[in-house]
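Sample 3 of the quickstart, ligand nicotinamide-adenine-dinucleotide:
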Amino acid sequence: MGITHEAELLAQVPTGLLINGRWGPAASGKVFGVEDPATGRTLLSVADAGPEDAMAALDAAVAAQNSWSRVAPRERGEILRRAFELVTARIEDFALLITLEMGKPLAEARGEVAYGAEFLRWFSEEAVRTSGRYSLSPDGKSRLLVTKKPVGPCLLITPWNFPLAMATRKIAPAVAAGCTMVLKSANLTPLTSQLFAAVMQEAGLPAGVLNVIPTSTAGPTTGPLIKDPRLRKLSFTGSTPVGRNLLAAAAGNVLRTSMELGGNAPFIVFEDADLDAAVDGALVAKLRNMGEACTAANRFIVHKSIAGEFAGKFAAKMNTMITARGTHPESTVGPLIDARSRDKVHELVTDAVASGASVVTGGAPVEGPGYFYRPTILTGVREGTRILSEEIFGPVAPIITFTKEAEAVRLANSTEYGLLAIVFTTDFNRGLRMGEQLETGMIGLNAGIISNAAAPFGGVKQSGLGREGGLEGIEEYLYTQYTAIADPHTD
Ligand code: NAD
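Result:
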């Protein structure tokens, strides 16, 4: 997989905007460059949409909505199924593209392609299962008919950390439900969405159903769409501060919203845990995606009696990781997405150390090119330190200790976020008890990774609103309509 393959693949990526089934330049003629975070080199430039292009994309989505919603559910499902087959057949191309623009090691990128494709398969099956109900009114004088209808044109905004999966997790249920859409991909990683949109066309998606507008000016470009009364839904995945602003903007238009926001996952290890399993779980929960995941373990809350042994074993595993460009066959930790992210990670580590934490391993950036950071473990981190309350989004594991179960619960819940909590214990009842007390949308019980297209993904508190995947995922794109049927023959 050399330079030639990279160049050949990049040559296949559409670089225009996709509006009403046609790829074309931005109205302004502007383009922006996409960088390889492992080298700092520009991979490709893509069209840079402005408000005028965004409005043309919404026009196309609005024009296609009525006919698209009348396409039979089975046909919508079969388009998704074909897209699943096409993405799966091109797993190597998608994986390489993800690695090039986002940085993760190829093996992980293949994992993302499999996970991302799974939403296409899952929702191809769900497209035909949006049934309603029919019942007699309690007074027996009328009938109630309840049906589900597509919400209508949607704006989908995705982050850079999972360039394929975050797009399919929204596009697949929207297609299944019969909605049209405008996708604003992340400006740091638009290429995967570009190739994926071409695959959706090849799978038979009609013109105007999926419109794609990469842009370097997210706010000004999408702002007018959020105000437009023809838009019916905003689905956003990204940081909590941006999500909050978008929610406020969406309120003006009373839009349906789905918000998948930031996380601050606690990783709790009890004294009765299978320690080797906990260390293996910790490694993936922390280092998958270089720690750049909303579900990444952000705080390790470990029982005092085993904290030293846990830190030692965890550090030994971390030291076997190989930090290199994701295309390197032995790479297990790629670069962070940009210089700003790497500097923020180092700032959090420096702040924790200044407040009394000790570095067990790592603790520094790697010399460039690229934005690499050494996998790091910190012990003795004080409560109240920034690294425990902010999303680290890097390969850094701060460890704090507890002695009583109630203390573990208190520490875990002492955050504005509520996406995921991970618990390692061999006591089944304790595991269930923890689930009952933890304020998160998802729990990993002896599991470091929980993502699954068949499961409802999402958070509570400031981690967001709504669920993606599972039986719940399609509901985000449907509204309920009730018809009262009077019976004139009732006495
Ligand atoms: P971000 O909030 O900076 O950007 C997310 C998307 O919003 C990007 O496409 C960006 O261009 C766009 N955006 C930014 N400002 C905007 C504006 N004013 N109007 C419209 N769009 C705007 O987040 P990011 O750095 O791309 O992603 C990392 C964040 O995403 C982390 O906080 C992470 O936890 C979160 N995330 C959450 C989930 C989840 O499912 N809960 C999944 C992945 C990532």
